[in-house]
Each structure stands twice: as C-alpha cells, then as structure tokens.
C-alpha cells in the first residue's frame, strides 16, 4: 500500500461504503458527543420517525452552552438566563432518559464543556472518528482522532445510523519547526498560524499539525491548537498520537485497562503519517519567531503579535472591522484599555490554562474597573484547581470564580459583555457581537488575559513572568 | 425535504466578507428546541436598530432588496459555528440561495441538506454579481447553471449527491438507513478485531 497520511489511515478504517462519483462515503462514527443546543431537533426527528438511537454506548451527553455559571440557590433553583434556556436543558435531560444516553448532567461530578470532558473521561481516543453538533469538535484531533463538527440534521443521522455521508476532504500539513520562546504558548501559536493562513485558509481541508514544536506540546496545549482549526475554516485538525498522548490517557475511566491497554497502545503507535505521504497542501512555520499574539479585528484571522502595529485596512470590510474594534492602524494592540477579561472556553479552560493565568495573577490585583471571569472547563478541572488553591489566587486578585460551562465564549447563558466593552478573552471567536451585542473581543492566551487583567490594558505576560522568577 | 429544481429571483447583495454564523443568527437565539420560526432573528443585530425598528443601513432592509430570495455575499460566507439554525433562519427569512466565491464547509453542508442552495462561483463571476445587485437570475439545479437576463449562463459545480437530493427531494437519513446491513457488518468486523 502506498504511503498514507494519518488522516487517510483513520478515514480508510471507518469506511462502511466507499464513495463513488454519485454518492459520498458512508463513514462510521465511533463517538458522538451531544449537548443541549444542537440536539433537540435531532431527537424530535428520531421520535417522529419512530427510530431508536442506534448506539447509546457510543453516545455521551453533557450540559454546557445554556447553563448558568453561578451556583444554584439554596432551594436548588438555577439562575438560567431565561425560561427557554431552562427548558432546553430539561429537554436534553428528558431526551437522554428516553433514548438511553448517558448524560453528564447537573448531578454528575464529571459535567463540563463537551470538548473538555470527552478527553478527561478517556472517551476521546487515538484513531477514532468523533463528531458533535459543535464546530470545536476539532479539539479532539489533539489525540490523533478525526473529529469534526456537524449540523443538527447530521446529529440525527449519527443517532439513527452511527454513520455520516461524507466526501473525503483534502489534507493540509502545518509543520512547526523549532521551539516556542519562554512565555509564548499554544494559543499564541495557533493565532499566529490562523493569522498567516487566513480565516478560510483551511476550508476543504483536514489539517495535520506536525514538527518539533508540536511534538513538544502537552496534551492540553495540543487541544488548544486543534480546537481552533475551524477558525481557519478546517473542519478538523489532528496531531499524531505519541508517548505524551498515551501517558495522558492511561488510567482514564473510559480508556482501555490492563492487558487491553497495552494491546491498544501498540495499535495506536501505527497512527502516524507514513514517510513520504503526500499532502494536498503544506506550510512551514518557525516557532522561535512567534510572540504573544492577539486579534485586532472581527475574525480570528485578524491576528498579530501584540507589540506589532495593526496593519492598515486594505478594503472597506477591513476598515469596518477596525472601526468596530476601535483599533487604530499602525498602532500595536498592546496597551489598549480593557473592560472585561474572560478566562475559559473549550480552547483554554483546562487545569494548565488556569495555572498559567494564576502564575501571572498570584499576589497581584485586578486593575480597577476591570471585571474578570474565570470559568473552569469541567467539574474535574474545578476540583483540581481548588485542590491547588488556584481559585484563591483568582478570588484574592479580584476575579470571579464560576462553575463550569461555555459561559462568555458564546454568551448565551447570560454571561456577556456590554456594548462597546473590550473583552480580552481566551476563547476562540472574536466575531461581532459574539460575547454580547456590540462587545469587542480580543482573543489571547490565558497568560496574556491574566496580565491584561492586572494591567487594565492589553499586556505582555512575559513581563509578569520575569518578575515572578526574579 | 421538498425538491428544489429552479429558483428565480432578483439578487440582494451583502458585500461583507466572512459573514459568520453569529451574524446570521446570534447565539442568544439558540435556546429554542424547534427548527421553525427563526427568520425573525436572521441577521438580528445588523438588521434592527436599538429600538427594534428596521436598520435602514442594512442592505436587505432596502426597498429594492424586498422579496429577493437569492443572496450574493462576500467570500467565506457562513464561517464559524456548526449551528444549523443559520440555514434554518435564512430559509425562514425567505433566502433560498446563497452565491459566493467561497462558502464555509459546515454551513454549506447544512444548507444543502435543508434545500438552501449554497453555490460556489468563480471569483470573476462572483465579483460581477457583487457589483450588480438586483439582477434577475434563474438558478437551474438540474443544468447547474445560472441564467442571466441577457441570456448568458454561469455554470456552477454541485456535489452530485447533493444535486440528486435537491432535485428529487431525497431524504438523506432514509438513504443512510438503507445501509443498515453494511453498518451491522462493519460493527461485527470491528468487534472481532478488538
């Protein structure tokens, strides 16, 4: 057999019926993740057709998007944004009962953002096909899984058949050589990559991140990188599994155990692109040249090192984006006054992200007038963070410490910024109005977000890390 | 899905590039558990003023755009989330086709599955349509051609299965369910291998 890419190996292993000129492939899906926002209409579809859910054992549900991040009142009442949000959550609870899906709901000590808990539970594994009615499903590609977001019609397809009709996408290798400088992390790296290849640079492709700098990343950092593949237009982005992956997964509840573990790892070792495998497109980056990076416009492709001047608009659309952001051409974003800081989301709400933010905030105070929301990605992250006392660091600095959920990343649960406010956010989208109507979003790493919270303006975290070391 | 064979309408134009799904329908309207009735939220934060009245600067609010069911938009329309609420909202708002030089993958798939024609054009043709709002077009799905008022034709590509489903109103879930035996066979093979 000719040399194949990692993507091709996973694709080939999941073809139930091959594609032809007339029909797409029938592709088997190993794991279906479900949440309250994109599933109700799919469950209704099953019900109206009298269909069962084919593989409840390959389906896992959680509550994250519409859920409040403030705790329940003493009477158990949760502070939902509105009655519809509450009803939507109740609908998923009822649907999971009816169709036999395991729900990591309010009473679960493992509830959290769908893309945080899948890996935590060990449900996400190398070589799998994983889908969810959520575009950030690309996160799971960090484990060498083919993982992508789907719409609600396709959610119904997977529920009923455990399969999807798919045309084979093209492949795009992103090589990152060298080492990231100290104080520069995975978020800076992926913002830099999207800034270079563009917000649509990955459209039609599955990305594979490779090279020395990628191999050096922790699992959490790899998840941050793969999470934002969709922000370059790529439905999926993956990284070949290695010892870092295996060590991270070992012993997790849904991972293989005992003798089965060793046999499985042996199989997983084959999940890498063969020598000489051909990609449809390739680009190369030098990690050592990357600096703390932020966005300055209204899509994630408008990203730049925070100390570099914002480029002048090339057309009316870009000018409109700069005007919306109140960003000035030829001036750096560093130093821009900040109103709100959000640390959370499926991009950056894991324990290492919170540690990174806490390292900057420890012993310091949030600048006057700045609101800081820290929202752990899952109950497990919250537990671990509290065990380390990270919540005390945040609370002492003047930040709010919330319960897990998507929160201000998508701002549909009531956590939102006011019109005109500037939010430095560790999330993934800086679209107009994403974090509240009229709100201005600057995407950044947890370290940058924390430094900006302290400074009251977009700040370089390296200055704060140096002080700690000294 | 009802068959979609031909769409005839004047065009309305949104020049902006990268119109994301949050602009098509802001996330705060996603708490619904229904598909229907999302048209009133389509382009919500662009279309209405603070007081809830129509924003006269929103191109689709202009008198000449009224009744147009073909939308020509700047490149990379539909980028962002996987929310199928975006095509649901557009269809309920009476948009039946989106023409663009590039359309985001997930949005395009969602649109076609709902009978919203998401059509990718060459850049030159796209540029011409962007510059000529209100032109009367007839989109022929069978011929994969857009007929212009002067008799000219713009050819476009459509994935053959999507075209087949549009023309015949094929229920894709029904099609998938026909593969039940193959799926069961695949599952047995996997269990044996494990």
TrEMBL record, chain A:
<dbReference type="InterPro" id="IPR004430">
    <property type="entry name" value="3-IsopropMal_deHydase_lsu"/>
</dbReference>
<keyword id="KW-0100">Branched-chain amino acid biosynthesis</keyword>
<comment type="similarity">
    <text>Belongs to the aconitase/IPM isomerase family. LeuC type 1 subfamily.</text>
</comment>
<dbReference type="InterPro" id="IPR033941">
    <property type="entry name" value="IPMI_cat"/>
</dbReference>
<dbReference type="InterPro" id="IPR018136">
    <property type="entry name" value="Aconitase_4Fe-4S_BS"/>
</dbReference>
<dbReference type="InterPro" id="IPR050067">
    <property type="entry name" value="IPM_dehydratase_rel_enz"/>
</dbReference>
<dbReference type="InterPro" id="IPR015931">
    <property type="entry name" value="Acnase/IPM_dHydase_lsu_aba_1/3"/>
</dbReference>
<keyword id="KW-0411">Iron-sulfur</keyword>
<feature type="binding site">
    <location>
        <position position="346"/>
    </location>
    <ligand>
        <name>[4Fe-4S] cluster</name>
    </ligand>
</feature>
<keyword id="KW-0028">Amino-acid biosynthesis</keyword>
<comment type="subunit">
    <text>Heterodimer of LeuC and LeuD.</text>
</comment>
<keyword id="KW-0479">Metal-binding</keyword>
<feature type="binding site">
    <location>
        <position position="409"/>
    </location>
    <ligand>
        <name>[4Fe-4S] cluster</name>
    </ligand>
</feature>
<comment type="function">
    <text>Catalyzes the isomerization between 2-isopropylmalate and 3-isopropylmalate, via the formation of 2-isopropylmaleate.</text>
</comment>
<keyword id="KW-0456">Lyase</keyword>
<dbReference type="Pfam" id="PF00330">
    <property type="entry name" value="Aconitase"/>
</dbReference>
<dbReference type="InterPro" id="IPR036008">
    <property type="entry name" value="Aconitase_4Fe-4S_dom"/>
</dbReference>
<feature type="binding site">
    <location>
        <position position="406"/>
    </location>
    <ligand>
        <name>[4Fe-4S] cluster</name>
    </ligand>
</feature>
<feature type="domain" description="Aconitase/3-isopropylmalate dehydratase large subunit alpha/beta/alpha">
    <location>
        <begin position="8"/>
        <end position="456"/>
    </location>
</feature>
<keyword id="KW-0004">4Fe-4S</keyword>
<keyword id="KW-0408">Iron</keyword>
<dbReference type="InterPro" id="IPR001030">
    <property type="entry name" value="Acoase/IPM_deHydtase_lsu_aba"/>
</dbReference>
UniProtKB/TrEMBL annotation, chain B:
<comment type="similarity">
    <text>Belongs to the LeuD family. LeuD type 1 subfamily.</text>
</comment>
<keyword id="KW-0028">Amino-acid biosynthesis</keyword>
<comment type="pathway">
    <text>Amino-acid biosynthesis; L-leucine biosynthesis; L-leucine from 3-methyl-2-oxobutanoate: step 2/4.</text>
</comment>
<dbReference type="InterPro" id="IPR004431">
    <property type="entry name" value="3-IsopropMal_deHydase_ssu"/>
</dbReference>
<dbReference type="InterPro" id="IPR033940">
    <property type="entry name" value="IPMI_Swivel"/>
</dbReference>
<keyword id="KW-0100">Branched-chain amino acid biosynthesis</keyword>
<comment type="subunit">
    <text>Heterodimer of LeuC and LeuD.</text>
</comment>
<dbReference type="Pfam" id="PF00694">
    <property type="entry name" value="Aconitase_C"/>
</dbReference>
<keyword id="KW-0456">Lyase</keyword>
<protein>
    <recommendedName>
        <fullName>3-isopropylmalate dehydratase small subunit</fullName>
        <ecNumber>4.2.1.33</ecNumber>
    </recommendedName>
</protein>
<keyword id="KW-0432">Leucine biosynthesis</keyword>
<dbReference type="InterPro" id="IPR000573">
    <property type="entry name" value="AconitaseA/IPMdHydase_ssu_swvl"/>
</dbReference>
<dbReference type="InterPro" id="IPR050075">
    <property type="entry name" value="LeuD"/>
</dbReference>
<feature type="domain" description="Aconitase A/isopropylmalate dehydratase small subunit swivel">
    <location>
        <begin position="11"/>
        <end position="123"/>
    </location>
</feature>
<dbReference type="InterPro" id="IPR015928">
    <property type="entry name" value="Aconitase/3IPM_dehydase_swvl"/>
</dbReference>
<comment type="function">
    <text>Catalyzes the isomerization between 2-isopropylmalate and 3-isopropylmalate, via the formation of 2-isopropylmaleate.</text>
</comment>
